[in-house]
Design a protein that fits this description.
InterPro entries: 4Fe4S_Fe-S-bd (IPR017896), 4Fe4S_Fe_S_CS (IPR017900), Electron_Trans/Redox (IPR051684)
Distance between the termini: 86 Å
Number of strands: 10
Keywords: 4Fe-4S, Electron transport, Iron, Iron-sulfur, Membrane, Metal-binding, Transmembrane, Transmembrane helix, Transport
Pfam families: Fer4, Fer4_5, Fer4_7
Oligomer: single chain
Structural class: mainly alpha
Number of domains: 2
Protein name: Periplasmic nitrate reductase, fused NapH and NapG
Largest sheet: 2 strands, antiparallel
GO molecular function, one term: 4 iron, 4 sulfur cluster binding
Mean pLDDT: 90
């Protein structure tokens, strides 16, 4: 029999690779554009990718009991999947492109050797989906940990971006050291234009998880897409009703199994009766490599039974119950009784329960912060708030005339504010530690915190204090005093404090506008028995 590959599907495969590259490049360009542009407002909707993610619409809406209008764009993705199949995973998803690229590298290096018959269950990602949805019913939003866009953006913002920044900075220093002044200046200019943040807390953990996800492709091609991705599982459930069905011409097929061996998601094209439509991402690889052009995808409207995915009622029910049991565990935290002073949220953040219901831990706000003040939380927000944004004044401060973080949140966890609105928002309060403050403790002059306070009139005022020095001399100096009514908790005083290690003035979350309970003093009981804040 004459062997001739299908030119049509060969070029479709090349088109798909080109489309993947274009969409990943678009994602990366928007990522780089997520920084201070020299103006008060961003001209580009840099978070637009997230608005087409139906998993975010579903989980954030259930967990927060509200629908963020921009996420309704994800209905387009669902409609397209219903008609065309799970093509988003194979053609458009930037994380899918990363996994396919590394799978290709591992195959070329002969580290990854595709097998003829892979019997591994494809159910895990569906069980993850049901667990996440069940937890959302109890207002616990876990989707940000494994949602592909959130996972990729967070990894790039917290891990890849600082690596690029450090690499460019070191390259510039090397160029200057070698006498290549022009190259050094060009690299320095590039560093300034990119405005990449240099450091993030928890970067090692987040970066390590990203590297593990990438290295798993050495074991199975597109491991994440096969076994872990809840967004892919959601699209897989919808794609059962798509228009394009795989067909194998029995007269041309030579039973070589190449299509199944090289299938990226183990959709098992051969034999035709075992094709798993919910796993097929329409990468066209099977049709392109078929030596006899026996494979095609003609139109055919009918529902396909889910093959190779053991989703019996018992497993689905058990997983859903597990999600319902786990959800309250995430809420077990002493922070529900008394707030953590280090839990300083960005300006515009919704009240904590609503914020946690909507935040998908994507890292957009962290990436756009011009002072590198926002970082992924670890223990500050309890189990439910791991990797949600917190302000860390020792590393950066909330720029007074900046509202960029409020402009990029894809789910409305941080409401959008104008600059005029933002400067009135109180996110915490500064406190002077008199045991460490130079005028109070040592009798030495220092007014750095007062000089940097951006509030008008200044929230940090100066008062005369007399300090008895070890020499027995009384030193009179101006010392800082915080007006808690006008302080907005921006953190610049703590950031600029000249006292090393533990600053002499520190910001806590107390007094924040978004909370009716996180106040300076605990409620007291009035004579009538009513609580008064």
């Amino acid at each position: 029999m004459k062997r001739e590959r299908s030119k049509k599907y060969f070029w479709l495969q090349r088109l798909r690779i080109l489309t993947q590259a274009v969409f990943f490049l678009l994602f990366f360009v928007l990522f780089l554009q997520t920084h201070y542009p020299g103006e008060d407002y961003l001209k580009v909707t840099v978070e637009r990718f997230f608005h087409f993610d139906p998993l975010l619409l579903l989980t954030a809406s259930i967990a927060s009991r509200a629908i963020y209008a921009a996420l309704l764009l994800s209905l387009i993705t669902l409609a397209a999947t219903l008609l065309l199949g799970r093509f988003v995973c194979g053609w458009l998803c930037p994380l899918g492109s990363v996994h396919q690229f590394f799978s290709f590298i591992f195959k070329k290096a002969r580290v990854l050797k595709p097998r003829k018959d892979d019997q591994a269950s494809l159910a895990p990602k569906y069980l993850v989906l049901f667990l996440v949805l069940a937890a959302s019913l109890l207002a616990v939003n876990l989707v940000g940990y494994l949602d592909p866009l959130s996972f990729l953006y967070r990894s790039f913002a917290v891990f890849i971006s600082p690596l690029i920044n450090i690499g460019l900075a070191q390259s510039g220093n090397l160029a200057y050291g070698l006498g290549l002044k022009g190259l050094g200046q060009a690299i320095s200019q590039a560093v300034g234009n990119l405005a990449l943040n240099g450091v993030f807390q928890n970067a090692l953990l987040i970066g390590g998880l990203f590297l593990v996800a990438v290295l798993l492709n050495a074991r199975k091609e597109r491991f994440w897409c096969r076994y872990l991705c809840p967004a892919g599982a959601l699209l897989g459930l919808v794609s059962r009703f798509n228009l394009f069905k795989l067909k194998i011409d029995p007269e041309k097929c030579i039973n070589c199994h190449l299509c199944s061996i090289h299938c990226q998601t183990n959709a098992r094209p051969y034999p035709a009766g075992e094709w798993r439509s919910s796993e097929c991402i329409y990468c066209e690889t099977c049709a392109a490599i078929c030596p006899t052009a026996a494979i095609s995808f003609p139109l055919g409207w009918k529902s396909e039974r889910m093959q190779g995915v053991d989703l019996n009622r018992r497993r689905v029910l058990l997983t859903s119950i597990t999600g319902l049991v786990l959800a309250p565990i995430f809420k077990i935290s002493p922070l529900r009784r008394r707030s953590n002073p280090a839990l300083i949220r960005p300006p515009g953040a919704l009240p904590e329960p609503e914020f946690l219901g909507r935040c998908v831990k994507c890292g957009e706000c962290m990436k756009v912060c011009p002072t590198n003040a926002l970082h992924p939380a670890l223990a500050e927000a309890g189990p439910e708030g791991v990797w949600t944004p917190v302000l860390v004044p020792r590393i950066g401060y909330c720029e007074y005339y900046c509202s960029l973080c409020t402009q990029v949140c894809p789910t409305g966890a941080i409401r959008e504010l104008t600059v005029e609105e933002k400067v009135t928002v109180k996110i915490g309060t500064a406190w002077v530690d008199k045991t460490r403050c130079l005028p109070y403790a040592l009798g030495k002059p220092c007014i750095v915190c007062e000089e940097h306070c951006p509030v008008s009139p200044k929230a940090i005022q100066l008062v005369k204090v007399d300090t008895l020095t070890p020499e027995g001399v009384v030193a009179t100096n101006l010392a800082p005093f915080v007006n808690v009514d006008t302080c907005i908790g921006c953190g610049i005083c703590e950031n600029k404090c000249v006292v090393m290690d533990l600053p002499a003035i520190r910001v806590s979350s107390i007094g924040e506008n978004r909370s009716a309970h996180n106040r300076l003093v605990l409620p007291v009981v009035e004579e009538q028995g009513q609580l008064k804040p």
